[in-house]
Amino acid sequence: MRRFVIGSARNLIESSRQKYQFERSILSSPYRFLSSSPAADSPSSSSSSSSTMAHPVSLNTINPKVIECEYAVRGEIVTLAQKLQEEMQTKPDAHPFEEILYCNIGNPQSLGQQPITFFREVLALCDHPAILDKSETQGLFSADSIERAWQILDQIPGRATGAYSHSQGIKGLRDTIAAGIEARDGFPADPNDIFLTDGASPAVHMMMQLLIRSEKDGILCPIPQYPLYSASIALHGGTLVPYYLDEATGWGLEVSELKKQLETSRSKGITVRALVVINPGNPTGQVLAEENQKAIVEFCKQEGLVLLADEVYQENVYVPEKKFHSFKKVSRSMGYGEKDIALVSFQSVSKGYYGECGKRGGYMEVTGFGADVREQIYKVASVNLCSNISGQILASLVMGPPKVGDESYESYSAERDGILSSLARRAKTLEDAFNKLEGVTCNKAEGAMYLFPRIDLPEKAIKAAEAAKKAPDAYYCQRLLAATGIVFVPGSGFGQVPGTWHFRCTILPQEEKIPAIVTRLTDFHKSFMDEFRG
Amino acid sequence: MRRFVIGSARNLIESSRQKYQFERSILSSPYRFLSSSPAADSPSSSSSSSSTMAHPVSLNTINPKVIECEYAVRGEIVTLAQKLQEEMQTKPDAHPFEEILYCNIGNPQSLGQQPITFFREVLALCDHPAILDKSETQGLFSADSIERAWQILDQIPGRATGAYSHSQGIKGLRDTIAAGIEARDGFPADPNDIFLTDGASPAVHMMMQLLIRSEKDGILCPIPQYPLYSASIALHGGTLVPYYLDEATGWGLEVSELKKQLETSRSKGITVRALVVINPGNPTGQVLAEENQKAIVEFCKQEGLVLLADEVYQENVYVPEKKFHSFKKVSRSMGYGEKDIALVSFQSVSKGYYGECGKRGGYMEVTGFGADVREQIYKVASVNLCSNISGQILASLVMGPPKVGDESYESYSAERDGILSSLARRAKTLEDAFNKLEGVTCNKAEGAMYLFPRIDLPEKAIKAAEAAKKAPDAYYCQRLLAATGIVFVPGSGFGQVPGTWHFRCTILPQEEKIPAIVTRLTDFHKSFMDEFRG
């Protein structure tokens, strides 16, 4: 059933035919899936057009790794949605729906989620410290936000929130984050292991840049995966070595599958450098069991792989039977320390209950590397000087929120619990709705912000997609968008077992909109199936 | 006198011996210049040490382009300064000075420069919009900052300052920036040409990533240069093609020199893709004359080179006889449009009179590329989702500050003029002081934030440096630091004509500290020269 294919970004970009081979193999579509970008469509032909003749730079002369890279969550379907939205601004009746419902990306505040008040109070005060000792400020801000702002300012040399910081981030903020990690894990954390970054994405890029020397270096990534990984491996010229999550066991991560893929890739001359694990999973929403994590740690230790742990959804767990355990905690609980396993944990202010995507805050905790390699990571960080200070402050707040007894504690925890319990209800409602659709099965939404239902499409629909030069899941998503305004991302953007079709749907639309989404989706699906039923 | 050498990052990293050849050629030092990092010191030997044996990742197995990259402004001398500072925290009398004076980096607020009040008011209000319609807010914030915050919020879909934006940045903010560029240049600017970024550095990386395919692709860079360029070319595996600025004519940029270097590199099989021009200059502080800029534009047009214009110091011009002209304005005034020249202009909120380094805001204006290549730039931007929203807002404020008649206009312009005139005085004082030192000559500080004086070192000092395994300018800077606490960056970090020695000094220490700096520097220099005079 499964095919195990290794896609070398660099080798497979030589011609557009090979490019589609890559897509067909890694992203598991027997169909070329189109992009609205002329670039991705016909890289070799466009240079002969008159518009590019005039420019010194053409698609034929840019870095082929850039052309190779794809990023589905802001890809073709989103471009189309934006176009429809623009049309509706001039002609409100142009389409059979009142608004576009963006379920394509984990961007909670764009869909109406409100920021946590305490966090925003502190950020505002740090942005304009001149008001901190004004009497009006007492009336506008909570006492503990004022106190926290003073604490943070005192941690910043010269109280200069407008200065470049240490390239790993302000030391006092890293102290707070390390203390938060310790409280979470029950094991020590070193502020010197923290690298604050503009969201988690630049941190992932930094590690790929460090580890990838050529297309002979491979990174084990889950399939389905978050496309940041395939994009960043492509940009850095490495090889994505896929391992398949087992949909039948709730997107289970089996170490036997990791071993098989490692051996297959080694037999092809690939040096596997690292294993990416996304927990809770994106786009799949599963939460790993601790025993499973122990086996993964053991595997990385035995095979000498760096464990790249994407833990940005650590606060997003919706089922009582599952709990988030950091890979650092799991490895330390096994007795493994600095010398035993190289582990990088990524965290972000964009997810959790905070959802502060636009602030671009995040960090990576880097353990198990020698001082010499750490120096190199520091050097790469220093070339971009530092991450933005507001994002740094927010990362410290997220890892050190108000405590029992603080003035803001009650309102803070009410806001937090309100968001998380609503997300859990939305996840369950959507999961149930998907499972009621003909030919659709959806695993339990244990965590993260997504559902990744599987859809068995009628043969006629697959033929219609082929005629429209679309992958079948992309065809379904485009028809859904055109009929309802709902934006899902086709599974082919994340990778899937060949011959299976999925889509990713976020659980983020406001709760009161969920019933209408379910109705519109259900109606569309029924008519789609009626149209194509054999 | 001059040597014209092309350094291929990838080829020259094979061994440490070759690495030092690269440094000797491009960075023009006949001496190996040391780094405190064990990595840069002995990449081949460290893997045999016991500490790295335990780790799966060693210097031998990471990306050699990372090892190759150097970033002097946060390099060895700064690490040493930080060490001294730490020592002084426990032992205040450990060194013969009371504080470390960081003149190594353009980081104004770290040295006490205050942020522009209006900018910070708007940022704070956008961070915590809940206070916008509270009565206390009227007492704390200016009326036009409240109005501007409302305007900006209305430009953000859903007023969600915590949401990911369009990957080029929020459209309304790009409109403001485009209007600011039009007002500056007198030629139209298109908001769709603007890509907002976390400071200028990621924008430079993005263009290098786009243009560099292999070590056969060259980028023409000034020598001396800002080390972001050498670092980013090294990280992307390209070749830095140096052109020398003429110190004798005030760091003049001669097109004949560009042509010579272009031909030399072509004869070696290098495809030159782009020309980097930094105007006003870093580290050299010169401001290009308009006629000179026209010749540069003509050269790029004729040779089909992308013009990468680092214009982050566009507000930092200190002499009445010089004026900043953007390369976009110059090329449009020559009648050259979209089809004639590919031009990228970089701007940042970190410089100018605002100096908001920690906010990580900036943009690039991308013109003269075909739609297909633009799609690729957009795709790369989208992989990191978007730049931070506070930085985006600040970039719009910097390009659209208060106007005559606005409530804040007078205080805003007083703050701005106060900073700029003080910087001009500091530049002149330091320039005069350098020119009074034996063996030191310093070009006029026309703009930017730096002076790059030349120092003729006695033969005995060069010998002493050699014995200490330092480049002579690094040796001078280390001795200066140890004696006075003043941090300069040796010229070898920027590149210089072989056999000449320089250092870079920012003009940023607070004005009242400048006399003491001059005295300490003068005393040190006299005793240094006395020690080594032949």
From TrEMBL, chains A, B:
Superkingdom per UniProt: Eukaryota
Per the UniProt entry, what are the Gene Ontology biological process annotations, in alphabetical order?
L-alanine catabolic process
Q: Which InterPro entries match?
A: ALAT1/2-like (IPR045088), Aminotransferase_I/II_large (IPR004839), PyrdxlP-dep_Trfase (IPR015424), PyrdxlP-dep_Trfase_major (IPR015421), PyrdxlP-dep_Trfase_small (IPR015422)
Q: Any idea which UniProt keywords this protein has?
A: Aminotransferase, Pyridoxal phosphate, Transferase
A GO molecular function assigned to this protein is:
L-alanine:2-oxoglutarate aminotransferase activity
The answer, when asked if Transferase is one of the entry's keywords, is yes
Keyword Transferase part of the UniProt annotation: yes
| UniProt-listed Gene3D superfamilies | 1.10.287.1970, Aspartate Aminotransferase, domain 1 (3.90.1150.10), Type I PLP-dependent aspartate aminotransferase-like (Major domain) (3.40.640.10)
**Residue stretches making up the Aminotransferase class I/classII large domain:** 158-519
Q: Which EC number applies?
A: 2.6.1.2
- Tell me the pathway: Amino-acid degradation; L-alanine degradation via transaminase pathway; pyruvate from L-alanine: step 1/1; Photosynthesis; C4 acid pathway
Q: Which cofactor does it need?
A: pyridoxal 5'-phosphate
Query: What quaternary arrangement does the UniProt entry report?
Result: Homodimer.
Family, per entry = Belongs to the class-I pyridoxal-phosphate-dependent aminotransferase family. Alanine aminotransferase subfamily.
**Protein name (Swiss-Prot/TrEMBL):** alanine transaminase
Organism in which the protein naturally occurs: Gossypium darwinii (Darwin's cotton)
